[in-house]
Amino acid sequence: MKSDKRILYLVRHAKSGKGTPEIADIDRTLSDTGVEEAYDMATRLFDMKEIPQLIISSSATRAISTALIFQRVLQVPFEQFRITEALYEMDINDLYEFVADLDDRYHSIMLFGHNPSLTLFAAKMDPSVMHIPTAGIIRFDFEVEKWRHSSYINADQRIFIAP
């Protein structure tokens, strides 16, 4: 991979179970359909040879579960897997700052998060993006040397797939 290229994958968590008053939103788990979606989408990426160097997940249970399935299917070493509270309920300006602060040692990074922030962020980079469904994946390429040089104006959408 060229040193002046950054690849950002945005992945919305797979379908979760219904919320209940007894279970906090952050603790909602994947539904059976969600587990199937995650395996299917991860396998599709693996078959396309789309393997990130680093995976970062929201701290929500449904996002972590989705990200762990991708990590195993894509065979990303567990040492290259992170969980952060920052990706849970993040607005698009904070998400932009989060991307700008990504570790420059990694040229391809996969973020697991939530709507509406992922869709709004993706739509800012590509106005044709109307909605990222559960387990949907969108890839943006940036011809930059550092993550902080990535922006809405130099994003090039390369992949948009959904279950």
Q: At the third CATH level, what is the topology name?
A: Rossmann fold
Kindly report the average pLDDT value.
94
What's the number of helices?
4
What is the domain tally?
1
**Major sheet: order of its strands?**
3-2-4-1-5-6
Are there runs of 5+ residues with pLDDT below 50, and where?
Answer: none
Range of helix content: 25-40%
Gap between N and C termini: 28 Å
Describe the biggest sheet? 6 strands, mixed
Order of helices and strands: EHEHEHEHEE
Commentary on this structure:
It is a single chain. By secondary structure, this protein is an alpha/beta fold. Helix 1 (32-47) packs parallel to helix 2 and helix 3 (92-100) packs across helix 4. Helix 2 (61-74) links the parallel strand 2 (54-58) and strand 3 (81-84). The mean pLDDT is 94. A 6-stranded mixed sheet has the order 3-2-4-1-5-6, with helices on both faces. It has helices at residues 32-47, 61-74, 92-100, 117-125; strands at 6-12, 54-58, 81-84, 108-113, 137-142, 155-161. The chain has one domain (6-15, 26-161): 3-Layer(aba) Sandwich (Rossmann fold), CATH 3.40.50.1240.
